[in-house]
């Protein structure tokens, strides 16, 4: 019985390690993709998507019109999804 419990614990640990590794790889890939964007796209992605700022707050922080923030974010999303 103890041996079976040990095996179950080992399997769970291995599964958790695999999930953690996969998550770390996804985070790294997203980080690299964002860092690969031109700065003017990267800054709106970081503010709007990562920091969850509103378009208005992002525009104020960057000193840009809100329409510029929206268009840059749209273009950045397109590049990140591979559609641009």
CATH superfamily of the largest domain: Winged helix-like DNA-binding domain superfamily/Winged helix DNA-binding domain
CA distance, first residue to last residue: 57 Å
Contiguous low-pLDDT stretches (5 residues minimum) are none
**What string gives the helices and strands in order?**
HHHH
What's the β-strand tally? 0
Strand content: under 5%
Helix content bin: over 70%
> How many structural domains?
2
Largest sheet: none
Structural class: mainly alpha
Q: What best-fitting shape do the alpha-carbon axes yield?
A: elongated
Count of discrete alpha- or pi-helical segments spanning 4 or more residues: 4
Quaternary organisation of the protein chains = single chain
CATH domain class name of the largest domain: Mainly Alpha
- Indicate the CATH architecture of the largest domain: Orthogonal Bundle
CATH topology of the largest domain: Arc Repressor Mutant, subunit A
Write down the Rg: 20 Å
Could you explain how this protein is built, in words?
This protein is an all-alpha fold. The chain has two domains: 1-35; 38-84, Arc Repressor Mutant, subunit A, CATH 1.10.10.10. The chain is built from four helices and no strands. The protein has helices spanning 2-35, 39-50, 55-62, 66-81. It is elongated and about 65 Å long.
